[in-house]
Amino acid sequence: MSEFHGIIPPLLTPRTERGELDFEGISALVDHLVEGGVQGIFALGSSGEVPYLTSSEREQVLRTALDATQGRVPVLVGISEQSTNRVLDEAERLLSIGGDAAVVTTPFYALSDAGEIEQHFRTVAERVDVPVFAYDIPVRTHSKLPHEVTVRLAHEGILAGVKDSSADDVAFRRLLLQTRDLNEFAVFTGHEAVADGALLGGAAGIVPGLGNVDPAGYVRLYNAAQSGDWAAAASEQDRLARLFEITSAATPGRVSPGAAGLGAFKTALQVMGVIGSNRMTEPMLALNDAEARRVREVISAEGLL
Amino acid sequence: MSEFHGIIPPLLTPRTERGELDFEGISALVDHLVEGGVQGIFALGSSGEVPYLTSSEREQVLRTALDATQGRVPVLVGISEQSTNRVLDEAERLLSIGGDAAVVTTPFYALSDAGEIEQHFRTVAERVDVPVFAYDIPVRTHSKLPHEVTVRLAHEGILAGVKDSSADDVAFRRLLLQTRDLNEFAVFTGHEAVADGALLGGAAGIVPGLGNVDPAGYVRLYNAAQSGDWAAAASEQDRLARLFEITSAATPGRVSPGAAGLGAFKTALQVMGVIGSNRMTEPMLALNDAEARRVREVISAEGLL
Amino acid sequence: MSEFHGIIPPLLTPRTERGELDFEGISALVDHLVEGGVQGIFALGSSGEVPYLTSSEREQVLRTALDATQGRVPVLVGISEQSTNRVLDEAERLLSIGGDAAVVTTPFYALSDAGEIEQHFRTVAERVDVPVFAYDIPVRTHSKLPHEVTVRLAHEGILAGVKDSSADDVAFRRLLLQTRDLNEFAVFTGHEAVADGALLGGAAGIVPGLGNVDPAGYVRLYNAAQSGDWAAAASEQDRLARLFEITSAATPGRVSPGAAGLGAFKTALQVMGVIGSNRMTEPMLALNDAEARRVREVISAEGLL
Amino acid sequence: MSEFHGIIPPLLTPRTERGELDFEGISALVDHLVEGGVQGIFALGSSGEVPYLTSSEREQVLRTALDATQGRVPVLVGISEQSTNRVLDEAERLLSIGGDAAVVTTPFYALSDAGEIEQHFRTVAERVDVPVFAYDIPVRTHSKLPHEVTVRLAHEGILAGVKDSSADDVAFRRLLLQTRDLNEFAVFTGHEAVADGALLGGAAGIVPGLGNVDPAGYVRLYNAAQSGDWAAAASEQDRLARLFEITSAATPGRVSPGAAGLGAFKTALQVMGVIGSNRMTEPMLALNDAEARRVREVISAEGLL
């Protein structure tokens, strides 16, 4: 089994009421996750509002997350840049701060094809000292990581794994099947509401945004799956899927789809007392009081208060 | 549990070498499915090449399928038309021949919204005598069945279920959760490679195109899931997912994506001796000899010869 | 120059207040168009709500349109079916009633590729006695007519032209350039707000839904372009583009996007006294009184009352 | 008329055979453009391979372009970053070097809505000292600049204009109509093959990638349009559209779509002797010899050699 496995939530980036980075909040959230039993932390992913963070903020967030984690679990570092050379610069800058692995996006804004994507990961993996995961998130990059490329890079040992947020469960299973014999290759799903099925198919773990809110629930799901108790896994998944309905708390049209989901996670953590504010990076709007009440109802019903 | 559950393959439409409907082949295929243990047959679905069949051919295929089935299992009838009034005409014409349920597409070619889709199913269900399933297949209709509409129609007893080929496993789980208390509402997945996860989440059954080739395999998968033996279900699913690789046998670019999948199923059945030809409805091309050899290798490796 | 050129509006399908086909309204609308100076009429296009019409209604609409036109201008007949064999049946049924050309969709609901689309038009053109136009409307079919296919079929004399509603003006210009030497091949744009540019690039004519409302305006635009008075053409186009804003009169979310546009055209014609009702085919909703007032304001400002 | 108008080519970024920035090539290309009569230069646009340039390279390219231009024409500076705060950092860094206007992308990788996009431009315009153009390029950002937002920001004087590469000519005309009375608001099209129609509709100018190759041709097109000689404009556009066929010289599948177009422009400039190499930023591939010969044939036929 890869050293990277289990529950690795993508760390949210709390802000103060005034909109500044909330370093205490970041640390408290890291503690909440580690105490919840997670096997790793993914810093600077999409759930961490990484596209909205300046370069300086990305560094501060990573430094704070590493300091708070203190090596209790591995920290994976998101490298979200438009193309190979920019990824190399970003990786050098961020990984000099620390981190146990890099989670690298496919190119975006650029209009690439399979050949360029393959070369992209070959170059990055050659130049970066830590294991490299491919970050497959077409809803943002608008380009699906090509199956043949991933399988080839997995078998050559160039990629350490994939963080799959592609919403293509058929391709996900196909990838699992064709990399099953590779002990060191780890396939993670980013879809928090169907993780039991992903684990049943052989996924190494889950990168659940909702895991910020209920890390212990995801750890129970993972442990049930590990022990072969699939009824318990499915039952825990059902509970977490009901909890995931907090992402529908925002009034449609008032806040953007991106802000609705992350804003609900932040609001839940604020209601639970883990962080002090549900403020989002501008121009994203935070959930308002009425929306926060809906979040409270759901998390209360699922036993988190 | 709904009377509609388990493995309900979408019946392929065999043709003779000369391109005519192969009535003997249809009957032989029905027998192959029923003897494989399936719980139902879905006639005139996309896998049956329904968009390519003339109105007269649709009637002949349905009549032959019903005659061959002889009531051994229920027969669901696909109603694939552009809009409400055309669906009503098609349903009247086809259901007068027979069938135990109607599987009705959302409107296509038409540019509808959620309100029109809801009214569409209300009108159809009111005018049709058999249970009505919604057929959610956005890759063809380019319109996803809206979640709120489905849940409302489920709770009002207007829809008997959904045949989901939307490739959106998160929405699928959400639908399962919000209709779980409805004993008579049945949610089917059309994705043959991830059916174990769908069943783990509570799906009523599977409508697998690949089930034409290996109905017994899908029945084993379903039975394992029913008995709670999820390790066996996942193992059988893995085998079927490897078998599903026959859909990659066609040379990319030579035949269309649609023809590649259905053509592989027909070719497998021809190799297995169930039907006499792998001919497709024009202008779709059949797999050629080299491609058929690749199909043979896969099905042989998975124990079907 | 092809016999098919100039302004060929896609005939709307008026209904009575009770929802039945309004044969008087169809005839009145045909007269309105012919008296406006149009060079042809396109019956059973998308603007005619063809996906919503039953087979019987399609026949009645065509018969009425032909009777009303009385040969004063050519009538092009839309053949909107899912695949080749169904197009052949539909064409035989409809063209036996009459019509001077067939406007044939690319396959839809079917998942085709360039090869199948090419064979589709070859087969249809071989079996149909009138000139065949390809109907390129990817917003409905979700498949763009491939450029190389169109050019080849144009040069071989298999297609008589294209009705382009693809919203791809670069591909449109490329097609114009590569078929310019073919006197009998006619390229029409379906985009009523940018027709001056299309004509400047060499288009044979326009198939404007808005031309139902203001046929004389489009004829002026066409005549100005024909005489090389491009300033007048652009000025008329600007006026028509302002008139096109009636398609924004419907309250967003209340009626579907499809119904908003066609409903505005019907409402304008009702306000102008050409037809008696703005009723749409169910489940499409008609514009309500408040929305109709907005339509009235716009058409009044543009001098149509 | 806005000070920004006419032909403003998006400056390519030449590289040496060894892959380094070719500062002499950049200067030579700037001279080629200015001597061709262009009214401005757009540095660091998509055609300049901006997503592939590191932050340091972006600075060097801009500095070189400004030095070469020497104020002969205005220089517009592309600011291509994922979100508001990152745009502000990038703008501060680049505009401190120089530039007469900023061309700012809508957010990308971020999942925004109309409200966030509006606030994005309000914040950027408030904080940046030069006029701000919105860069509408959904093929890369996957989000169309909302019409209502643009019109509002235009009328409030917040945006100085739009560089429209959205391939939506109907929305383009609508924007022209609704901002026609704003003398200081300039709408540019990025679509080099249909610029005559855009100018006929009232566009302020063109930002043609192909204008790197044939600036004088685009200047003739613009001048013809300005003088009302639309027949000459269309004829020149036809010639340029034929020249644009060099973007089809690359063998499909060998190089990516992005590299095929820009690589053809670089190859043409190399053949013409303006720059020394057609090398692309890695991992993009340059056109090979056979492909370069096809480029040579086209540009020779159109009189550029």
Automatic annotation (TrEMBL), chains A, B, C, D:
Annotated active site residues, numbered on this chain, are 135 (proton donor/acceptor), 163 (schiff-base intermediate with substrate)
Q: Tell me a GO biological process for this protein.
A: small molecule metabolic process
Q: Which UniProt keywords apply?
A: Lyase, Schiff base
Q: Which GO terms describe its molecular function?
A: 4-hydroxy-tetrahydrodipicolinate synthase activity
Binding of pyruvate occurs at: 207
**Keyword Lyase listed:** yes
Task: Name the family the entry cites.
Answer: Belongs to the DapA family.
Q: What's the protein here called?
A: 4-hydroxy-tetrahydrodipicolinate synthase
Recorded source organism is Brevibacterium sandarakinum
Supply the source organism's classification.
Bacteria, Bacillati, Actinomycetota, Actinomycetes, Micrococcales
